[in-house]
Automatic annotation (TrEMBL):
Gene3D superfamilies, alphabetized: Aromatic compound dioxygenase
Annotated source species: Terrabacter terrigena
Recorded family membership: Belongs to the intradiol ring-cleavage dioxygenase family.
The UniProt record lists the keyword Oxidoreductase: yes
GO MF annotation terms: protocatechuate 3,4-dioxygenase activity
EC number: 1.13.11.3
One Pfam family of this chain: Dioxygenase_C
Domain Intradiol ring-cleavage dioxygenases as annotated: residue spans: 25-116
InterPro entries attached to this UniProt entry: Intradiol_dOase_C, Intradiol_dOase_core, Intradiol_RC_Dioxygenase, Protocat_dOase_a
Enzyme class, first EC level, given as a word: oxidoreductase
Keywords in alphabetical order: Dioxygenase, Oxidoreductase
Domain of life: Bacteria
Protein name (Swiss-Prot/TrEMBL): Protocatechuate 3,4-dioxygenase subunit alpha
Amino acid sequence: MPDAQANPQYAAAPALAPTPGQTVGPFYHYALPFADGEHLVPPGTPGSVRLHGTVTDGNGAPVPDALLEIWQPDAEGRIVRVHGSLRRDLGVFTGFGRTQTWRDGGYSFITVEPGATSEGAAPFIAMTVFARGLLNRLFTRVYLPEPASALESDTLLSSLDPAERATLVASRESDGSLRFDVRLQGDGETVFLRYPRHEV
């Protein structure tokens, strides 16, 4: 072992401040998407709806390399128990979807409007966001804009101020689609959730 006293270059270095980790990639556009991942039901399915929006960063600029995943109950509010969430068999609704954002930060899913999982509950879609600069995924919810009475009584929404609450409720477009924009930081930042045992 080198002698630190005889060789000053081997003396103990001063304590260094830890630095944050770095993300690798992202490689979402070719590594993670799968065929028809954005179609929870085939386009044109009776009762289907388009969920779409834009992912932006803290400066309001579009994020072209994010990956979004959604989980939801079916139209009757049943939590799906089908094995193999990546399957896209005709007539089999798994409640799971995955898609990447486009160059303009936009995304789109074709799905069904989720039903309430219990009487009077506010229907929502769970969403996870992966994006550049994130060391861990972000969790949020996409609430349907109706019924208003269910939104008013929802425990999570009731705990937020009006501006925060608005970031979790999709808007109904004139064509019947649902628009839900995700703001990662800054003014109008989407409310993100932390679950038990989830390390930030």
